[in-house]
Amino acid sequence: MPRTALALGAIVALAFGLTACVAEPEPEPEWTEETAYAEAEEVFRAYIAAAGFEATNDDPMKYVTGTMKQVTAEAVESRDSNPIDSRGAAEIVSFEAQSFDSVGESVALDALACFDASTLEIRDTDGEWVQPRNEVRYGVEASFMTVHGALLIENFTEATPGSCDE
């Protein structure tokens, strides 16, 4: 009988030890306005790098939801089928909060990203290097929302001219 009690005690101790080692799932992030805007800026910068002229193997589709899925798919297809010879870059120079809403564990926010494209040039049909825009400093208004705990770009449009003037 003592052997049985010892064996049973060892099994219980082993089971307790194993369950103590099992990692608890990480809790969903609590979205504050500050953390949401920091994440939105990181997502926006990663999306621009993946979808734009930068050489990256990152998939821009993982940063978008809603209408941006189709827009991004069409833009990537166009970029891949009609490559543009470019040099320089459109640099994100600021990312500013516009609005923030939170309901439970979900957030929605809007931001204004300002770009400086003064060094960006593309080769035109005559083989000349030209700036692709008349305004080298411009803004993009971006909307973000959480989907299954991740903050994604829902939409963006060009901001009103002058929104990013110094």
Summarize the structure.
The chain is an alpha+beta fold and 166 residues long.
| Class inferred from helices and paired strands | alpha+beta
> What name does CATH use for the topology?
Nuclear Transport Factor 2, Chain: A
User: Over the alpha carbons, how many angstroms does the gyration radius reach?
Assistant: 25 Å
CATH architecture: Roll
Shape: globular
Question: Termini distance?
Answer: 85 Å
Biggest β-sheet strands, sense, barrel: 4 strands, antiparallel
What do these coordinates show?
There is one protein chain. The protein is of the alpha+beta class and 166 residues long. It has a single domain (30-158), classed as Nuclear Transport Factor 2, Chain: A. The chain is 33% helix and 31% strand. The protein has three helices and seven strands, in the order αααβββββββ. It has helices at residues 2-21, 33-51, 67-81, and strands at 86-87, 91-103, 106-116, 121-123, 129-130, 137-147, 150-158. Strands 2-3-6-7 form a four-stranded antiparallel β-sheet. It has a three-stranded antiparallel β-sheet with strand order 1-4-5, with no helix packed on it.
What are the key terms here?
31% strand; alpha+beta; 166 residues; three-stranded antiparallel sheet; globular
